[in-house]
Amino acid sequence: MRRRRYEAVVIAASTGGIEALRAVLRAVDPRIAAPVVIVQHTASENAQALCDVLAAGSAIPVVEAESRQPLVNGCAYLAPPGYHLLVEPGPRAALSMDEKVCHVRPSADVLFTSAADVWRGGLIGIVLTGANEDGAAGMAAIRSRRGLAVVQKPEEAEMREMPEATLRRAGADHVLSLQEIGPLLNRLLCR
Question: CA-CA distance, 2 to 28, in Å (whole number)?
Fold first, then answer.
């Protein structure tokens, strides 16, 4: 049986997410054949400082996404504070100041849904710790297009609401600890 080819990863995190993202990015192999696109809810307006924190120990670069920027393999793109990050065909990044979704901007639902439209079954969605329901509807969109759904084990999340809401609304193909997510991505995406 032929293994499915995945082309991209989208990750959502909120409360407790910085350390969770660091754990995942630390384990990702630099040969990963996919862009990694991230929404982290934060009150900070300093995206560069957050990129620097996430890049420390990461084998792949972490940069603030810019409008119309091509999304290339082996790089992580972080949604800028106060902007929705979307994926357009190309693939490339797009930024929006549209209304908040789930009371947040950037919203995982916006990112996940737009990415699912572009990559369809070639997309891996990951929901990590967080204190709201953002990501649940977006993960349902990913799964409806045959993408792969990965959710952090709620019992190990600093805040279980995002993982639990995602599991209730969309289910998951994998419910994993943080230490298991990076190795799964490496198995699926390193060619």
Answer: 23
Contact 168, 136 (CB under 8 A): yes
The residues annotated with a catalytic role in the active site are 14, 41, 134
**Of residues 138 and 50, more confidently modeled:** 138
Nearest-angstrom CA–CA distance, 116 and 61: 23
State how far the Cα of 3 lies from the Cα of 92, in Å rounded to an integer.
26
pLDDT (tens digit per residue) in 4-29: 789 999 999 999 999 999 999 999 99
Average pLDDT over residues 159-164: 97
Task: Find out whether 32 and 74 touch, Cβ atoms under 8 Å.
Answer: yes
- Report which of 107, 143, 106, 108 is spatially closest to residue 124, judged by C-alpha positions: 143
pTM of the full structure: 0.96
Q: Please provide the CATH number assigned to the domain covering 8-189.
A: 3.40.50.180
Give domain limits for the chain: 8-189
Helices (H) and strands (E) in the chain, counts: 6, 9
Q: String of b and e for 35-71 (b: at least 16 CB within 10 Å)?
A: bbbbbbbbeeeebeebbeebbeebebebbbbeeebeb
Fill in the DSSP letter of residue 183: H
